[in-house]
Amino acid sequence: MKKIALVTGASSGIGKSCVEIFAKNGINIIAVARRLERLIELKDNVENRYGVKLLPVQLDITDKTAVSDYLTNLPDDWKDIEILINNAGLSRGLDKLQDGNIDDWEEMIDVNIKGLLYVTKAILPGMVKRNSGTVVNLSSIAGHETYIGGNVYCATKAAVLHLSKAMRMDVLGHNIRVISIDPGMVETEFSIVRFHGDKEKADKVYENITPLTPDDVANAVYFTVSLPQHVTIEDMVIMPTQQASATLNIKNYK
Ligand code: NAP
User: Containing domain of residue 28, as a range?
Assistant: First the structure.
């Protein structure tokens, strides 16, 4: 029987690349995001190419009732999730705290921390019961270091690092791996979302530098998951070679 991986934020960027690499390796996918049309396109694509099944799930992970109702009542064939990839996340704005927008703060906290917790709460008990599973949480270099204007985003990603540590302790003895993947700059829709749809401003972030691609990160995710179950890569920081810290990169290096 094929394993099942649930990927949040499967409609774009790193999540979409994770779907592709896991599907390519014969794993059935539950793909979660709000933009259903993208998930349906992904379903047609991976089912035709790789002969796996993909269940598209339109869900806003900040809606705790919807998350619980749907994910704790999955069709029988989809219940035994072996791999959970908590990838959905976003940044909003780059304002200093004193100039910050409270709606932006709340959205980041709601998706990056609370949404991750709601999804995990629905899936982790099954892993504990079956004594088997792998959880991958997407943190960031921003969870290790902060930068001007990064305030709340960095705080949410630091929270994800701590939640990964806490989960590892809480599930010890249940044969469950908890892996944190912490990338530097990756070219996805991340900056478009950060700058509220300003594509020109977003494109500038990736000018004159070679950032990571979403496939680079997804390959790292797959590598950690493909190791034997007794091996846990606790925390993998993965950076573009042209970036040496959250703030230092080839563009501002003198
Ligand atoms: P992206 O291309 O913008 O993708 C973000 C994904 O999250 C989308 O599929 C989006 O789907 C989903 N999402 C956002 N809010 C959601 C919600 N309320 N409910 C369900 N899904 C939601 O960005 P990305 O770069 O791939 O980001 C993936 C993860 O990597 C994030 O956790 C991010 O913090 C982390 N990360 C990114 C970078 C980077 O430089 N790009 C660096 C380090 C870490 P819908 O809009 O369709 O719902």
Answer: 4-238
